[in-house]
Sequence to fold (325 residues):
Amino acid sequence: MASDYLPFRPKRVLVTGVTGLVGRGVAKTLVGGGTEVVGACRTTVRPEARVLGVRYVEVGEIGLETRWDDALRDVDAVVHAAAHAHVMSPSARDHAAYHRVNVAGTRVLARAAEAHGVGRFVFVSSIKVNGEATLRGPFTSDDHPAPRDAFARCKLAGEEAIRDSLSRSQWVIVRPPLVYGAGMRGNFARMAHLVSTGLPLPFGAIDNRRSLVGVDNLSDLIALLISHPRAVGRVWLASDGEDVSTPELVSAIANVIGLPARLWSAPVWLLRVLGAVAGRHSEMRRLTESLYLDIDQTRDMLGWKPKIALRDGLARALEGYRVSV
Fold:
């Protein structure tokens, strides 16, 4: 088919979650490349938070009742980055939001995109669909899904929703690991804060391997997935292409911030016990276990490679943490 060989050239792209880390990064990358961007947002976006060149459309809460007609008008492609984000100890309310936003909301948007004749739909999923840890080698895009928590199960259900709602020539799925960048929140922000305190951290004995992806690298890949003729009907993995252990990450963050890395070596089993006692079992497991990705298929089939090295990505993300010398 012609679509196997000709790139898709969208003039206007709808980006959901445009005020979040990934959505904002994708919007900036697309606008910088000359693409018109419509940004779907829940409420009015403050002027200082807007990306120059994006037309913002308020859609309210994402779910079964969301009306997408205005946002999808004359749109050629969709990047669905909006999600109810993963939390360490989800409540019943979080579980309900996972399904409402990440499953039902995704299905409604996909069906609306189909009705509006959208040519390509990129869904930002999560590597957690593959599992929580790599035990026998890196995760690949061909792995059988093994989600372990409510967030990951709902992300997988969201993937299934777009497969059911769209033709194979339209949908694209990308599963990133932890995404970092300026304005980040969650685990990475907590780690950066810990390192910035200058306190000795007990992670020196951890021997693991973790993949990360900077928001600029992920946004660059998503922009390619919108247009590449081989992207459709597949799952793609993304990372910076440089895996690090927890001690290496602490050292890299400290170096960027301008502080010495203060690490001491507590037994890993003790860290896990203390994490469980403190109610942070999941967080400590992520600090001590491995989760790394094989992105060779993404490199080879798409001709893509991360443009920004891990250290440079960290420097961009941690600008606000730097110590004045």
Q: What stands out?
A: The longest strand covers residues 36-41.
